[in-house]
Amino acid sequence: MSLQLTACVFALLVCSALAQPACEGKRQCIDTAACVSGKCVCQAPYVWGDGTFACYRQNAVAAELKNDPKLTNFNNETVPFPYPCRYLVTHVRQELKDNDKNVIGNCEFKVHAFNAKAKGKFFTHGFDVAVKITYDEGTVVKMSSRNYGTADNGVYSFMKKGTMGEYLPDGPWGDDDIDYKDAQNGIRVELKENSYNNQLVYDFRRCGVTITFVPYDLTSRREQKSIPGLSVAINCAM
């Protein structure tokens, strides 16, 4: 086999390995689900949810914005929300716990989402998060960010603007990275990308909060393999 042919075969194998197979028609399962009899099923410890969008633990509640978009609240009530505006998704205060699950303070956060319109369709374009961590010993940590994204024929891009040291639910946002770490207590707040799920993830586990966002693909549209939208999950028994 020639060197050139070997390279071509290797490239084909790599592309095949990276391709994510469809399960429910054209959709692909997220990494916390598996394709079972043609359906994406959430896998333990994630025991409920939509395996093509978001899976949750038993003690979690979730608010979701999907596709058109439709808003589902923490009581599992769903209403259409096809408007080109910014709106409050949730405002919650939770206990802050350390690695040993001792309560060491509280955390307050506000999440707004905002829609956009293109080619006659409304979609969730991004989300804003403002967080205030108050330790029982008196320390207060604040951070705020605006996060949005685009997708073009399966290629996803995310934009992030952040301000550390300020609780700004309505901005303005600067150029800081949102990344807070309190190693002694096991506290971490981070904003990261999950390329397998095509998601931007806002992770604050010690407060029981995880936010995921998938941009709408303006080119693929109905053929988009990942369901676009926003999920806000709160673990009530972390």
TrEMBL record:
Record carries keyword Signal: yes
Alphabetic keyword roster: Signal
Signal peptide: 1-19
Name of the protein: VWFD domain-containing protein
Source organism (scientific name): Elysia chlorotica
